[in-house]
Amino acid sequence: MVVFLLIFLLITTLGLFLLPRLWKYPLTLLSGFIIAGASLTFAIPALFQGISYTESFQFPFWQNGVNIRIDRLSAFFMLVINFTCITGFIYARSYLKAYMSTKSEHSFSLHYTALIWLQTSMLSVTVIDGGFAFLVAWELMSVSSFLLVIFDAKDRDTMKAGINYLIQMHVGFLFLLVAFLIIENATGVASFDNLTVYFSTHPNIPLFALFFIGFGIKAGFMPLHTWLPMAHPAAPSHVSGIMSGVMIKMGIYGIVRVLFLLQDNLLEIGAFVLIISIISGLLGVMFAIVQHDLKRLLAYHSIENIGIIGIGLGLGLIGRALNMPLIEVLGFSGGLLHVLNHSLFKSLLFYNAGSVYIATHTRNIEHLGGLIKKMPYTAILFLIGSLAICGLPPFNGFISEYLIYSGLFKSLYHIGFYESTLMLAAIIGLALIGGLAIFCFTKAFGIVFLGNSRSDATLHAKEIDKPGIFNLSFIVFIMLLIGLLPVAFVEPIFAVVNQATGITLSSGVQPVSFNNIMNISIIGGIFVFLVTVLLVWRYYHLKRLNAVSYGPTWGCGYSAGTAKHQYTATSFADNFSTLAQPILQSSKEMQPIETADIFPTNRHFHTHQSDVIKKIGIDWPIEKLLTLLKKIAVMQTGQIQHYILYAFVFMLLILVLTFFNFI
Amino acid sequence: MLSLILIILTALIYPGIIIRTKSIFSGRKGPGIFQPVKDIFVLFHKGSVFSTTTSLIFQIAPAITLATIITAALMLPFGTQPAIISFENDFVMFAYILALGKFFTIISALDTGSGFEGMGANREALYSMLVEPAFFLLLATFASITGYTSFSDIFAHFEISNNHYLIIITLISFYMLLQIAMIENSRLPVDDPKTHLELTMVHEVMILDNSGFDKALIHIGTMLKFSIYGSLIFNSAIPSNLSLPIRIVIYILLQVFIAFIMGIWESFRARNKMPRNTIYIFTLTAIGMLAFLLVLVMNNKF
Description:
In chain A, helix 13 packs across helix 19 (487-501). Among the domains of chain A are: 265-504 and 515-540, no CATH class; 613-659. Chain A has helices at 2-18, 21-49, 72-96, 105-127, 131-149, 156-187, 193-201, 204-219, 228-234, 237-261, 266-289, 294-321, 325-360, 371-374, 376-389, 396-412, 417-449, 466-484, 487-501, 514-545, 569-579, 581-584, 612-632, 640-659, and strands spanning 53-57, 66-70, 548-551, 587-590, 605-608. Helix content of chain A is 72%, strand content 3%. By secondary structure, chain A is mainly alpha-helical. In chain A, 52% of the residues are buried. Chain B is mostly helical. Chain B is globular, with a radius of gyration of 19 Å. Helix content of chain B is 71%, strand content 1%. Chain B has one domain (2-298). The interface between A and B is large, with 86 and 87 residues.
C-alpha cells in the first residue's frame, strides 16, 4: 500500500505542475477522491466490523520502517478527514475562482499539490503506529498546511501569520521528537504500542506532559493556541475549513492515542486535562465575542470547541481513574463525537465566511449587514452552522454535548468531594460556554446577515455558484442526520471507545440506552413537526386575513434613521466586554464629549482587541530577548581585528579554565 | 399528559393574575384575569405590518420560539406521573431547546435593523447567558441528592429520602427557580414589562415590530413559559407521595400563589439599574453553589 501511495502521489504532483491550467483542478479533485476511496476501503471495515488492518513496510535504505495499523480509532479519524477534505476540495473551486486571473499558474500548482499532500499526510498520521515515520508524516502535514496558508503570500500579514504558524509547529515537533526519543531509549522501539510498556514501568506525568504540549500546540489548547487566530484568517477559506475542521483534530488524535494507554496517575492527568479544557473553552469563546474579523472569530471558536472535546476526554479519564466504565465511555465518546461534529459545522462556517469574503472583499463584520437578501443560501447555511456550533437541538452539536453532560451528571451522585467540584466546574463551564456561544453567534449572524448594510462593501455581493451551495447543503444534511438520528452515529463511536480502552461493560448495560437516544430523535421530530404546523398555520392565516402591509422599522417616531443607527458588532459585544474586561483587556480610544461641547466636531472611536495570553506568553518574552540580544550586538563591530580578538579571548578562557580544572 | 394539560390550563390565567394583583395594589380595579387571553384572540384577528428591512428570519422566528416552548413543556412531569417524553438528562434538552427559542428571538430582533431592538437583543443575550449556569447548578444539586438524572425520576424521588436538611434545599430551589422564572420571563427586577421607554426595555423592545399573528404566538409563548417554571417549582417543592387529587389542587393553588407573589413583587420593587443586573444574576449562581456544597455535606462527602 505504501509503495502504491508514494508512486501515486509522485505522479499526481508531477501532473499538477505539468498539466495545463484547466486540468489542474479536476486532477486535484480526482486524486482527492481516489485517496479518500482507497483509504475508506480499509477504514470502513475497521470502523464498522472491527477488522483491523496492519502492514509492516521496510524501506530498503532505512532501518526503522513504517508500521501501519488501522483500528477503529484511526478509521474514525480517517472518515472525518476524508469527508472534510472532499467538501473542502469541492468548495475550493468556488473560492479560488476569484483568484484565477490574479494568481500565477505555479502558485495554483503548489496550492493544489499542498492540498493533496495535506490530505495524505493527515491520513498517514492516523494510520502510522508511532515511530519516526509518524514524525515524518506529522512534519509533512505542518509543511503542506503552511504552504496552503501562505497562498496569498503577497500580503505581508499573511506571510507573517504563515511564518508564525511554521515556527510554532516546529516547537511542537521538538516536544514530540523528545517524547518519541524517550520511548525509544526506554523500550527500544518508538511506537505507540510500546507506550503501554513504558507507562507501566516509568512515571506517566512527564512523558504525557511532553506529548500534551507537542500535540496541544496543533490542537490549540489555551496557552498554546496563539497561532490559530492568526493563521486561520490568513488562509484561504477552504484551507481554514480543512485546518480548523480536521487538521487541529490531529492534535486531539495524538492526545487520545496517548491517553488511552496511560497506566498511572490517571486522576491527576484527567483533572489537568479537564481544567485546561474548561479554560480553553471559556477563554476561547470569550475572545471570540469581541472579534470583528469573521474568520478570526471562528478561529477562536475552534479553541472553544477543542475545549469541549477536551472536557469529554478529561471526563473519560477521570471515569477510568475512578473505575466507572459508564462515565469513561460517555466522556470519551462525547469528546470523539464532538470531533466529528466540529469538523462538520466548523468547516461549513468557514466555507460560508469565505463566500462572504469573496462577495464583499472584507472580513470585518462592522462593514457588513443585510447580506441575507443578497446571499440567502449562504445566510441559511451559516445560520444552521451557528445553531449547531452553539450545541442547540435538533442539530449535531447537541448530541455530543449531551453525551458529555450525561457523563458529568451521572457521576455526581457516586463520587467524592474533590471529583464533585471538578465535575461541577465542568458543568458550569459547559453551560457558560453554551450561553456565550449563543451570544457570539447571534452577534455574528445578526450583524453580518441581518438588518441593513453598514457600508458599500455589500453593494455587489453575489451568491456563490449552485454546485458550491449543493456541496455545503450536503454537510448540513449529515449534520441533521446526526442531530435527528443520533443512534446511527453514537453506536460506532461507542465501539471505537470500547476497542481502544478495552472496556467491556457488563452485559445489558449501555452507556446511554438506545431508548434515551431514540427519545432525542422523537423530541427532535416533535419539534420539527410543531414548527411545520405553526408555519403552515401562519401561512394560511395570513393568506385568509389578507391584511399584511409593509412599512419602515419602528424608530421611536423618528423615521429618518440610517443604517448607522443600527447596533454594531462592537456595541453588541460592549456590555459583555465591559463585564469581562479584567480578562479580555480590550482597549478603547476615544475623545469624550465635554458638557461645554455644544456642537461636537468629528470624532474617532477605536477599539482594539489583543490576545492577553499571546501578550504574556509570546510577545513579552520575545521583546525581552530582543532587548538582550540588541545589547549583545554591541560586539558585532564589523572590524576583523575585533573578531580575532574574540577568538583569542575565547582560547585564553579555555586555557585558563582547563588550568584550574573547571572543564 | 396530565402535566401538559395542567401547564396549559394554568398558563391561561397566569398573566391575568399578575396584572390583576398589580392593579389592586396600585389602587385600580384592573382588567379581568382572562383579559390577556382575550387580547390574544384580538391579535389573531388583526393584520400584520412587516418592516421592509426584515427578512425570512423575522417571519419564522415567533413560530420557532413557540415550538421550542411547547416541546420543552412535553418534558415536564407531574410528581410521580412521568412526562410525555422522559429520558436521562432530559433537562439538558429542556435548557438547550429553550435556548434555541431565545436564539431566534434575538436574531429576529436584529433582523429589524433597529438600534433599539439591537440593544434589547444584546441585553437579553447577556442575561440569558448568565442564567444558564444557575439552572444547571440547580439540576446538578438535584442530581447529586437523588442520584437520578431526568426530570421525571428526580421529582418522583425527590422528597422520599428522609433527610431533614432537604427542606433547606427545597427552599433554596424554590427561591432560585422563582428568580430564574422572573428573569427568563423578563420580569422585575431585571426587566420591566410595563416600561414605556424603549431605551429601558429588554424583552419588550425586541418584539416591538411584531404584530398580529406573530405577536399572538409570542404572547402564548410567554404565558406557557410562566406556567412551565411554575410547574418546575411545584415539582421541586411539593412531596410526590400525596394523593393525586390533592396534588392537582395544590398545583393550581401554588401556580396562583406564584403569580400572586410575582404581582406583589412587581408592585413594590423598582427595576435594577442595567449594570446591576449582571451582579443580580450572578448572585443566583452563587446561591446555587452554596446549595451544591450543602448537598455534598449532606451526603457526607467531606
